[in-house]
Amino acid sequence: MVDYLLEKLPKFLISFLTNKYNKIFHVLGDKRPDFIAGVSDLSAKRCAELNEQMPDSPNVSYRSIMSVMASARAALFPLNIGYRLINKLNGANDGLVWEKSAIHGSHKLIKPPKKRGISHGDVIDLMREDIPGFDVREMYVDIVSGLKNEGY
Known about the structure:
By secondary structure, the protein is mainly alpha-helical. The chain folds into two domains: 1-55, no CATH class; 58-152, no CATH class. It contains seven helices and two strands. It has helices at 2-8, 11-27, 35-40, 44-53, 79-89, 120-123, 136-149; strands at 63-66, 106-109. It has a two-stranded parallel ribbon with strand order 1-2. It is globular.
């Protein structure tokens, strides 16, 4: 999605969004926010470069956890728009990340509650929302518990 948006969006809109997000991140405590640099690091080309520079280590247990939204109504802006774009371009996603691009190491898909799904914002508890059938705190407890049971 990053590659597509950076190619298709007009430069003035990218600049406008960069300024808006930099202001938000500054208010949240980032002393030198650089939204566009962070977004650019998520492009397919940059991710491929980073994967080459940092190959997996046999001494590290790699895991990925992914959720998917069932519809754009499962999240607010900008994830609802992200969901629509990614869904059209690639398929199942959490409003920010395409499901298949999130797979690395052992992989777990968070089973979405019927009709709603779970957004990227839900997984980081952005809105502090109680979602029937999904408890974000318990999800993290289960992750840590599983790591402990495996000896980590």
